[in-house]
## 1
Amino acid sequence: MTKGINRIGLSVIAGIIIISINSCNLSKKFEKEEEEKIQSYLTSHPTLDYEKKASGLYYLDDSIGSGPQVTKGDSVFVMYTGYYISETKFGSNYGTTDTLKFKAGIGQMIAGFDEAITYMKEGSKCKIVVPSYLAYGTSGYYMAAYTPLLFDIFLVRLSSN
């Protein structure tokens, strides 16, 4: 009886290991596909000279504002348009009077958006390409997993705290 239980236990452990290995392979496949999508976007827009930051965020100043530089904890008021990497719009607050308000650099937004704001001055406009690991990651949450995003951001104003 004990040998039968041990065999079942070993079979379950072997199954878990096999599933884990296959999951890692799928993750690598999705990560590779995502990177190919990002590179395809960048290649098809050669006039947009994005800078790849250490985090993997691609950042491009459209125009640099003359106001103060954002620092961690500042309240920022932003207009934005968000796109999938296919350039299909998924959200925007342009055309409204509602600015997006949050505190910069403290994790109230997806990591890539939050990071981009810290490079800006009041009055600046930028474009960013956000890899999924700086957005909604492998779970997706609001959208499919491994979805890179594009944003056009205008920092309307900031309030230092």
## 2
Amino acid sequence: MQTSRRNFLKKGAFAMAGATILSNKILASATGNFSSHFPDDHVGLQLYSVRTDMSKDPLATLKQVAGIGYKYVEHASYMNRKFYNYSPTEFKKVLDDLGLKMISGHTVLGNKAWDEATHQFTDEWKHTVEDAATVGQEYVISPWLDESYRKDYDGLLRFLDVFNKSGELCKSHGMKFGYHNHNFEFSTTLNNMKLYDIILQHTDPKLVAQQLDIGNMYGAGGRADEIIKQYPGRFELMHVKDEIKSAKSEMGDGYESTILGAGVVGTKEIADLGRKTGGTRQFIVEQESYQDKTPIEAAKEDYEIMKKWGY
């Protein structure tokens, strides 16, 4: 049975609370009108899109990804100080040899990353940051929030301060910390506020970037265009995704991802809005379900669509 993204992250969070980091070549948010081509836009692939292939043969899979035309990737596998079973220096060489750069990566910043007694990050989290810097990342993205923080407003605020502290730690390594949403941030409220509003209002945008996943939120009622308008300039990264109704439902809310432009999200319009007023420069393609295609076929078609759209 295919492992869902939710279960994949939960297992990773319980196994260790390490996090992936990206380096801090942070681009200023854009708020004006621009031409159709942006030299500083980065179109990448979240490697969870080809997770089965990566687990079998990461080198061969990365060669295929590079062959499609992708220049940037985002990881979803960092454990025991290794990326897809490569050390940071080994993996950087693999990427360099293929003309790829890993701008960002996903590893959960969990409660085990922070020592409440000493008010310090654990060595495990410090190593996570160091390794992300070594491999050349610009952002560390945590894609999960432990369920305990979704029930306790004061506890959540304390942990969001840890987010800011992680931003300071990442900054000291030339990177920036970030958070990636799923769907619970839009379906769960504390003190009559959606979790996502609490997260954005209690994290310092100079220290904590937001990676807006425009598909994950859809089944929970989140609409990315409305969020970008509510918080202009806050979304340095975007997971470019589209959704269709499905009984399989990756998020348990009646939707699964599909080829860009084939679903209900309004992907191109949202990407364009992110580019224009959201501060978005990192556009990371992610497709977790493929209908009648292979993961690599889907990644290729998505890339060609992004090029057609002017990215």
## 3
Amino acid sequence: MLRILTYNVHRWLGTDRKIAPERTADVIASCEPDIVALQEVRAGRLSKGQADQAVMVANRLGMDLHFQPTIRVLGEQYGIAILTRHPSRLVRSDRLPSISPGPAFEKRSALWVTVEVGGQTLNVVNAHLSLRSRERLAQATALCGEEWISHRECLDPAILLGDFNAPPRSRSYRLMASQLLDAQLWNPSGEPQPTFHTRAPILRLDHIFVSRSIDVLSAAPVRTKLSKVASDHFPLMARFQIARGEPDAHEAPPEAATAK
């Protein structure tokens, strides 16, 4: 069994207004994940002489770090990351489409890493999509296209996850759910659960989508006393195993088209 986690860490800034990357690392460590996808990752040093924040979190977890910046400001960087305790390789990190009339301050991006687990290659794509619906749909379309999830080398088993800012009724969500299966359909508590805001969770914006050879055992937000204060999003974790057999181009099962 493997565990994968997606978590918008809100620049390590908690609801108590404290910047505490160590606390975020403790939330992640409590889940004992094999692979972690992070959004709103703040990299760089809080003050002179301190360690890089993203590297410090990875080292505290004993995981390898792949980082894609989306903002660069005065020597600091901010973006998305994938951490893993298994051998991994960066395949692609690139910007997603923007329909803004001028240069975008935050360059929405995706990060694709392969992870070797149990003799199999797992494709993992992490993304953080726009708050604007038209731009978000363009980005979701790109993620489902031949440069990312439908790329000839992005074979099953594959996982697309992140903060998509896309509730289940949105066109962006429905597009991704037509290609892959929403892991929260296997929530052991029944209905899929919201991930945002930690003070009053009402929106399901963070998602884990999986290809057909991945057997999801459970998927749900991680709600603890610590995770409630560490960020404005709850981490979303899925427990899964990979079916044995020949990898193939992934195809969403019928349930994905009717995801809740």
## 4
Amino acid sequence: MKQRTITAVFFAVAMIGGIYGGVWPFFTLFLVIAAGSLWEFLGLMLPREQSDFGFKRLIGTKMGLLAILLFVCYRFPDQFGTQRLQPLLSDWPFLLTFFVGSALLVELFGTSKAPFQNIGYYAAGTFYIALPVAMLYDVASLSDYHPHRVMGIFWIIWTNDTMAYLIGSQIGRRKLFERISPKKTWEGTIGGAICTVLMAWAISLYSNDFTTAQWLAVGAMVGIFGTLGDLVESMLKRSIGVKDSGTLLPGHGGLLDRFDSFLFVVGFVWVVVRVF
């Protein structure tokens, strides 16, 4: 319990410091989170019996990080000094061909007996982890950074996780998805979602980074898809028979365990920001 508390304190300090330290600490913090999450994901999915397991894991992590960097260089050319690269960065067919071709060449010179399975894992890591982090950079707007947006989103996600657990542990009776997560209940999920929308409304009273309608829409997205994101990661871990995605956060597991809801929900938040 003591170790878990110490880890939680350091985690909270790192998150708050990174988010409110300015655009570059924020950018660096989530690039590190993306790298660690990709490393954990590929460590879980890639066959460990491959003699070049570590090399493949490193390559897959680098591919995800490169995707993030290409995205932010395209979206924020003035911030990264990439104005001259805009024609190339906007050519998505070329970029897709580049990524697929790179993965094919890595596997061509590798030792895996299932190379296309590995390519699927590289792609899954990019879409599951790298793309959501890139979308968060877009939501926060690196050219005109809005830290309250980021903290508000995480506060809403934490509210959903905490209240769903507390309500479910007290009055939960009906299992939500027993095959994947035996402890989750409908009562806890619905109660957590209601509290999440209320928290989003409360944040809207103090933050004008989003309109009230946007904050409420973010709360609704988190209430629905945050739980689904947690279930998706539980499904992943159950499929390979592990309890935690890693050991980076003592007492809490790995980065994927802490950011599973965020990774799943941030894409829907991005849509909310774009649509409203």
